[in-house]
């Protein structure tokens, strides 16, 4: 079916170009056409979800100033974004917290070793699937050199200058998983990587080591979650066509 659609698109595009080359039209106009994209999961089967708090991946160089409740905040943001989607029902944060009752650290990775506990939560909440995962947030610093040109009145020509600086790149690696409560199978398991970079001098780099990273982490998290929501929710994308007039 997909091959037929692609072949039809190619035929239409080729015909349009031939008409243009033969002068059958006086002008060609580029137009935008909205195209519906289906969800990558079966939304007839999965409509009720519970989102568990996310856990941090343990690493030696993990940022020291990351808030302790980051995993809960990621889950809260995801519940809000899922709740805005049509025909999706998400268990509230309050109900989820009451159900977990302090046991979140033992089940929220959706690891195979915890699958029975995860399924029991899903069955108790009467949902079709459980969403959870982990996050890894760290920073990488490396020296950089920026080049520029300035006109020298003395030499009567442009001279190349450079300036050394330190580039600090924040990296968020967010793993999102969906497990089917009925079959105990993972129907979604993807890692979303997002980055944000800053230029620093030696002095500002030292300050950045203790500066809050909440806004950076929040922005990267929202980027990753938007991509996830877009993948599992029906939406429209724009395709371009050429109209011969």
What secondary-structure arrangement, pairings included, does this model have?
Blueprint: H1 2-21, E1 28-37, E2 48-51, E3 55-56, H2 70-83, E4 89-90, H3 93-100, H4 104-107, H5 115-125, E5 129-152, E6 157-180, E7 186-200, H6 202-208, H7 214-232, E8 235-244
Parallel strand pairs: 2-4, 2-5, 3-5
Antiparallel strand pairs: 1-8, 5-6, 6-7
Helix pairs in contact: 2-7
Short description:
By secondary structure, the protein is an alpha/beta fold. It is built from seven helices and eight strands.
If you had to describe this structure to a student in words, what would you say it looks like?
With 245 residues, the chain is an alpha/beta fold. It has 2 domains: 2-35 and 238-244, no CATH class; 39-134 and 172-191 and 206-237, Rossmann fold. The chain is built from 7 helices and 8 strands; from the N terminus they run H-E-E-E-H-E-H-H-H-E-E-E-H-H-E. The strands form 2 sheets. Strands 2, 3, 4, 5, 6 and 7 form a 6-stranded mixed beta sheet that branches. The relative contact order is 0.20.
Total helical elements: 7
Rg for CA atoms: 25 Å
Report the strand count: 8
Q: What portion of residues belong to β-strands?
A: 35-45%
Overall shape? flat
Question: Which terms summarize this structure?
Answer:
alpha/beta; Rossmann fold; two-stranded antiparallel sheet; 7 helices; 8 strands
């Amino acid at each position: 079916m997909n091959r037929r659609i692609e072949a039809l698109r190619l035929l239409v595009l080729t015909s349009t170009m031939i008409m243009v080359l033969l002068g059958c039209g006086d002008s060609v106009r580029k137009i935008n056409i909205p195209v519906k994209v289906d969800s990558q999961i079966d939304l007839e089967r999965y409509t009720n979800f519970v989102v568990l708090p996310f856990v941090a991946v343990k690493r030696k160089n993990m940022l020291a100033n990351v808030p302790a409740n980051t995993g809960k905040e990621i889950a809260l943001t995801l519940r809000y974004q899922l709740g805005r989607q049509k025909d999706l029902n998400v268990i509230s944060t309050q109900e989820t917290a009451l159900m977990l009752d302090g046991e979140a650290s033992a089940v929220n990775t959706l690891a195979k070793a915890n699958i029975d506990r995860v399924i029991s939560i899903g069955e108790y909440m009467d949902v079709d699937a459980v969403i959870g995962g982990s996050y890894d947030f760290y920073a990488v610093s490396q020296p950089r050199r920026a080049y520029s040109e300035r006109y020298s009145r003395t030499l009567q020509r442009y001279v190349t200058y450079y300036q050394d600086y330190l580039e600090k790149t924040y990296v968020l690696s967010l793993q999102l998983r969906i497990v089917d409560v009925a079959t105990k199978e993972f129907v979604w398991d993807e890692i979303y990587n997002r980055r944000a970079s800053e230029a620093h001098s030696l002095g500002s780099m030292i300050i950045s080591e203790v500066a809050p990273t909440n806004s950076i982490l929040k922005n990267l998290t929202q980027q990753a979650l938007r991509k996830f929501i877009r993948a599992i929710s029906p939406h429209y994308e724009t395709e371009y066509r050429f109209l011969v007039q």
